[in-house]
Amino acid sequence: MELKRELTATQVKEVLRHVINNNVKLSEQGKKPVALSILGNAGIGKTSIIHQVAEDEGMNFVRLNLAEIVVDDLVGYPVKEYEYVKGDDHIWINENLIQYYVNHQGYVPTNRNQMSYATPQWLTGKMDKPLILFLDDASRASLNLMQATMTIIDEQKYISWSLPEVSTVILSNNPDTGDYLVTTTDGAQKTRYLEVMMKFDLDSWAEWAEEYKMDTRCINFILKSPEVVEGIKDFTDDGNKIIKGNIRLWTKYFDTIGGIS
Questions:
Q1: C-alpha closest to that of 138 among 233, 39, 49
Q2: What single DSSP character describes residue 39?
Q3: For residue 131, how far is the Cα from the chain centroid?
Q4: Among 210, 225, 214, which residue's Cα sits nearest to residue 258?
Q5: Pseudo-torsion of CA 221, 222, 226, 227, nearest 10°?
Q6: Contact indicator for 59, 20 with CB cutoff of 8 Å
Q7: Torsion sign, CA atoms 200, 201, 204, 206
Q8: Which residues pair with residue 70 across a beta bridge?
Q9: H or E stretch including 257?
């Protein structure tokens, strides 16, 4: 489902907070949490605001760039598990734990086995409280990787592991306009999340830039000449194309020159 109105960074933060808190209520009702996708041009601050909301809400934060990983990095590596019993207690364990459960816990094998998936490395140490799983550049993922995300987005689990309770999955995507190398998302994928469109907002960026301790001369330059930023204005009043960069590129440039007196 797409919400067509373009939102500023401040408005997207409010949507994120609502979705996160609403997922707590849904969990209490035994319902599935809702995932959210943020659609917008590159470099407008999608990652920054998601990380900030995670900190504000006291949640763990995991960012996976789906353009840079393979399926096993996302879902964990396949492992063989064996069934052991002690009385009425049935457990499935991998071969590394067999000696412990047999010698120290008194379990015996049933001679049944199954293939499962080890908990992925990115979840290690992140199970103590709810987290935001941020699937960055989701539309740049390979087709196989996009398919592997479907259950995680919809149900927050994958075969043998789950995210911590009342977690929230958030995706970021670039628009499929021909300006970005993206994989077209089909209807089955899109039904697994709500989507909001984010636009660059000058005031929100300036507020962030002050917190970032960016050189005030650089902030003032953008405020006085916003037409140099993508998403503000494409043509001069007399019809000439404006040469511009996205705000992430400007930020890198300002970090480079900020120390010049």
A1: 39
A2: E
A3: 10
A4: 214
A5: 70
A6: yes
A7: positive
A8: none
A9: helix 247-257
Give the torsion through C-alpha atoms of 244, 141, 56, 165, to 10 deg. 170
**CB 222, CB 250: distance < 8 Å:** yes
CA nearest neighbour of 23 among 170, 196, 171 = 170
Helices (H), the chain: 9-28, 46-56, 71-75, 98-103, 143-155, 187-190, 202-211, 216-224, 247-257
* CB count in 10 Å sphere of residue 203: 11
Could you give the angle at the alpha carbon of 53 between the alpha carbons of 202 and 7, nearest 5°? 40
Query: What pLDDT does residue 235 have?
Result: 66
Q: Kindly tell me the burial class for residue 26, based on how many C-beta atoms sit within 10 Å of its own C-beta (0-12, 13-18, 19 or more).
A: middle
pTM of the predicted protein model: 0.79
Helical pair 9-28 and 202-211, crossing angle rounded to 10 deg: 80
Distance between CA 84 and CA 98 in Å, rounded? 9
* 40: three-class secondary structure by DSSP: coil
Closest CA to 135 of 215, 56, 38, 34: 38
37: β partners: 171, 195
Cβ atoms of residues 139 and 174 within 8 Å: yes
Residues found in the chain: 261
Say what angle helices 9-28 and 46-56 make with each other, to 10 degrees: 50
- Adjacent-strand bridge partners of 169: 133
Q: How far apart, in whole angstroms, are the C-alpha atoms of residue 196 and residue 12?
A: 8
Handedness of CA 76, 180, 176, 198 (dihedral sign): positive
CA angle 9, 12, 14 (to 5 degrees): 115
- Residues 84, 106: Cα–Cα separation, whole Å: 10
Q: What is the pLDDT of residues 199-251, one digit of tens each?
A: 888 888 898 899 889 999 999 999 998 888 876 666 666 777 767 778 888 99
